[in-house]
Design brief:
201 residues, alpha/beta, Rossmann fold, five-stranded parallel β-sheet, four-stranded mixed β-sheet, 9 strands, globular
Length: 201
């Protein structure tokens, strides 16, 4: 999407756990939509289907804290008992290569990015309703009952942050392609702005 002579975008895709952020990104990748997808660092244990360096960079608490102390993370957050962060250098290199950068981060991280990079484009991915979110989380089967309860509790608070975003996209059941098309349309429209966003990371 981004070309030399045109400003690159920093796009934040955020929303509650289980809303379908990964599914949207997988569909964007499958359509060859030109974006750089950042890989988040986390202390969360790796799930069976996840690949280190592709889905996340899995690391220990000490290494994560060292990255934080060296100011190597653009944003970081404690989410559901685990630490997550976005490597700053990864974002800088992609922007320098004239690529649009997509950050898949939680609401805490999105708040930090908005403060540090006010010109970032923020998109809140929302469920049609909480009942649907509950069903999605339960169908994943990757969390214990306690973890599931925590994620649902956090989701209620995260939904209250929606008014702070530039855009909201509903990810309704069985309408994933519509959701993806809306995200693409937002990015395309942002590149048509008369006053282009200037991203400084």
């Amino acid at each position: 999407m981004s070309e030399k002579g045109r400003s690159s975008l920093l796009i934040v895709l955020s929303g509650p756990s289980g809303v379908g952020k990964d599914a949207v990104i997988q569909r964007l990748k499958a359509s060859a939509f030109p974006l750089h997808y950042t890989v988040t660092v986390t202390t969360r244990p790796r799930r069976p289907n996840e690949v280190h360096g592709v889905d996340y960079f899995f690391t220990g608490e000490a290494d994560f804290d060292a990255m934080l102390a060296r100011d190597e993370l653009l944003e970081s957050a404690l989410v559901h008992g685990h630490k997550y962060g976005t490597p700053r250098q990864q974002v800088r290199e992609a922007l320098a290569a004239h690529k649009d950068v997509l950050l898949k981060i939680d609401v805490q991280g999105a708040t930090q990015v908005r403060h540090k990079v006010p010109e970032a484009v923020s998109i809140f991915l929302a469920p049609a309703n909480l009942d649907e979110l509950v069903r999605r989380l339960r169908s994943r089967g990757s969390e214990s009952a306690a973890e599931l309860a925590l994620r649902l509790h956090n989701a209620e608070g995260e939904l209250e942050d929606l008014p702070n975003y530039d855009y909201v996209v509903l990810n309704e059941q069985d309408r994933l392609q519509e959701t993806v098309d809306q995200v693409k349309a937002i990015i395309t429209a942002e590149h048509c702005r008369v006053r282009q966003r200037r991203i400084v990371v």
